[in-house]
Amino acid sequence: MNKNRIEDIFEIIVNYNIVIITELVPKKISIKIDKICRENEIYFIYGTICGLTWFLFNDFGEKYIIIEESDIELSKFKIMNIVKNGKNGKIEVFLPDNNINLLDGCFLKFSDIQGMKELNYEN
After folding, report:
1. Residue 96 within any structural domain of the chain
2. Of 21, 22, 109, 113, which is the most buried if we count CB atoms within 10 A?
3. pLDDT digit string (tens) for 47-106?
């Protein structure tokens, strides 16, 4: 791909509400496109099929939240300790199989907390 053509793409992205990539592109280019989209509140979707495998990446910005509307409880964990440190806190969770996939920005709903009832989720 011509370098000048790539720079042109970076400049015109800001004219759109959504950018969708359906072919493999170099990692640093997809990261730069995502960064431009994030800075300009543009939705970004990147996905493709590679033989028998596929991938899909969505970035709809920090304000986009997916809420599970079914009342299915996805996971339950036992909280072992909560430590408050100024505005931040640390929660230690008991994981019998060490299988939890929380990333920055994930939301948790607390229930049945004793001793710090203000942390319990209320509708």
Report:
1. no
2. 21
3. 998 888 888 899 988 777 666 555 555 566 677 777 777 666 777 776 666 556 666 666
